[in-house]
Amino acid sequence: MSSFRREHSHVSIKDIVYQVYENRVSRSLDRSRLPRHVGVILDGNRRWAKTVGATAADGHRRGADKISEFLNWCDEAGIELVTLWLLSTENLSRSQQEIDDLSEIIVATVERLAYQGHWKLHHVGDLKLLNDEHQKRITDAIASTQDSNGAWVNVAVGYGGRSEITEAVREFILTKAEEGLAADEIAAAVSIDEIEAHLYTRGQPDPDLVIRTSGEQRLSGFMPWQTVHSEYYFCEAYWPDFRRTDFLRALRAYELRDRRHGR
User: Is 91 tagged catalytic?
Assistant: First the structure.
């Protein structure tokens, strides 16, 4: 009993210390300098699972459970738009069992976010990479949120940066061809604005801050067009272990940077 009390007391004190620290960091942030759009590469679910002796599916479920909590932190900070990279095109090269488990977890997560009614969801990626049932469930869930007045949340499912740019160029060419332009006229019409008009994120501001968990320091194809001037924050924690403290540290690091946008 005394051992339990010491352990329980230790956890409680740790929680209190974190709460005090988080409140202090939160109060110190200059809200006028915080990002409008935060992109998140939710990495480390499988490695987290290995550390606790769980299955990959358990890791993905634990990571999915973190998402609503994270979005609430973003709401508290006044973030207008969040992009969550939930499933990359490269993920689809894993074993069929893991793909099936992961796809179902992701679809159920999108449905749960829609059911909560706090956010306006938007899909980013190629849903055709999923089976018909999952495509319909995600499409229906997203459609049910379009009257929401909350923050925008991009759910990147079946997303790959090179695929997005390839598809944008293809759509641009087809659109111009339908307008009756010849090949040389289409080539002359190519511009940054024209390509951006065919991206999955058309009409949205580019990510100001990109957070990647798990200690990996690369983007792995996350929005290569949109992130040319983004600030990056790499966190050692696996996504299931990502804390509000880590998020506030990312915001503080962003706030302190001198953003020159290449100038």
Answer: yes
